[in-house]
Design a protein that fits this description.
Layout lengths: L14 E2 L9 E4 L3 E7 L6 E6 L5 E3 L4 E2 L5 E5 L7 E9 L6 E8 L8 E4 L16 E3 L5 E5 L3 H7 L2 E8 L5 E7 L11 E3 L7 E10 L5 E4 L7 E3 L1
Parallel strand pairs: 2-9, 11-18
Antiparallel strand pairs: 1-3, 3-7, 4-5, 4-8, 6-7, 8-9, 10-12, 12-15, 13-14, 13-16, 14-15, 16-17, 16-18
Length: about 230
């Protein structure tokens, strides 16, 4: 009599599908869940840290894993300040973490979001830390990704501007923005910092203004401070 032998199956490597979020980052409201998809996402094989601009680690507890390893859910603590964070992913079989931006919003309302500045540093799109400032020059257009689209703004009679606030003095400056245009899909959008802005460190937010230049909406600050030389 032959005794059936168990079928031994080896788990594959952990894979999280980030491809559609690299230049924009995830968007999730405080106290809500963020769903990640992929393969071999099993408890014990993967863990996450949420890192703020000061490199403080915010642990994510109560992660829910789908039994087939194709999906998991992270709950964003309701006590966090809104803003941009880094989701640092540690997976079994990988020496280095994989990182991606997460835009934590104060509520579920659709608001403008700065995704990432397009710089010569490839890791700017998926940094493992956002503590160091990002350099920007005055008078030169810098590409960036955002949730704003030119056609939508035009239809509403609105336009966008970059708000820069000095960390040292609190003084505020406004830079021009060219929003993303489907007619030129290769071009993500850009902003230009006025030459009157003094050197220093600044927070950067994206504003939506009406025809009378009244602010009707504003993003959370970009994750990194902007260093203007």
């Amino acid at each position: 009599m032959k005794i059936p032998q168990p079928l031994l199956v080896t788990k594959g490597r952990v894979f999280v599908d980030y491809k559609n979020q690299t230049f924009f980052g995830y968007r999730v409201a405080l106290g809500k869940t963020l769903t990640l998809t992929g393969f071999n996402l099993f408890e014990g094989d993967i863990r996450f840290d949420l890192i703020d601009r000061f490199n403080k680690i915010h642990s994510l507890i109560g992660v829910l894993f789908e039994k087939y390893g194709r999906q998991l859910q992270l709950t964003i603590p309701a006590s966090l300040p809104p803003g941009q964070y880094v989701l640092r992913t540690y997976a079994k079989g990988f020496k280095e973490p994989v990182c991606l931006r997460v835009n934590v919003l104060k509520d579920d309302q659709v608001r403008p979001t700065i995704g990432t500045l397009v710089t010569q540093t490839a890791s700017e799109a998926s940094p493992c830390s956002i503590m160091e400032p990002v350099a920007a020059q005055r008078g030169i257009a810098l590409f960036f990704t955002s949730t704003l689209e030119k056609s939508v703004l035009d239809k509403l009679g609105q336009h966008a501007a970059l708000k820069l606030v000095s960390v040292s003095s609190g003084a505020s400056y406004s830079g021009s923005v060219v929003a993303y245009d489907y007619a030129n899909s290769v071009f993500p959008g850009s902003f230009t910092i006025p030459t009157i802005v003094p050197p220093g460190l600044f927070t950067a937010t994206l504003q939506v203004l009406d025809m009378k230049n009244n602010v009707v909406d504003e993003s959370e600050p970009y994750g990194r401070l902007v260093q203007i030389n």
